[in-house]
Design a protein that fits this description.
Elements: H1 2-16, H2 24-33, H3 38-77, H4 84-93, H5 97-126, H6 131-148
């Protein structure tokens, strides 16, 4: 139970953090200011893409864990008296695993569409860029395309 609380607290801290750090405008800004070699840039790009894909799933998981943790502590907070059998039935009734198993594919499809839309937007923005900035942007777009089609894992 302490382990679940620690996971829930960690999920909450991730939710309240700033997700806009990884927006395409800020990525371009940081790319211009930081000069790294090609393999480091590739790794940074992959890390940013992974965080963008995992963020909605972390939020989804956090909501389900928060509901379950709230339901777990509710009988103790309002001083409900359950027998062991009733308490086991209560815990199984608030268990979120079936809902999680049914709705996780929806979250994955939504995330895939989001990544595809972002890739298309980045390609459109690349048309407006010139010189070295355009070459860097093209590299990022190609990597995002390969990653979204699971060619690069």
């Amino acid at each position: 139970m302490i382990f679940q609380f620690a996971i829930g607290l960690g999920n909450f801290l991730v939710l309240v953090s700033d997700f806009d750090l990884f927006g395409s405008e800020k990525v371009r800004f940081h790319r211009i200011k930081i000069h790294v070699n090609l393999s480091q840039r590739y790794q940074i790009t992959e890390n940013i893409n992974s965080i963008q894909i995992l963020s909605p799933m972390i939020a989804f998981h956090s909501l389900l864990v928060a509901f379950y943790m709230g339901a777990l502590f509710l009988p103790f907070a309002v001083n409900l008296k359950f027998s062991q059998k009733q308490f086991a039935i209560y815990l199984e009734s608030v268990q979120q695993t079936p809902i999680y198993a049914l709705t996780l594919p929806i979250a994955i499809v939504w995330t895939e569409k989001y990544v595809r839309k972002t890739t298309q937007k980045n390609r459109q923005n690349a048309i407006e860029l010139k010189g070295i900035e355009a070459a860097d942007h093209y590299f990022v777009c190609i990597l995002m395309h390969l990653f979204s089609h699971n060619i690069i894992v």
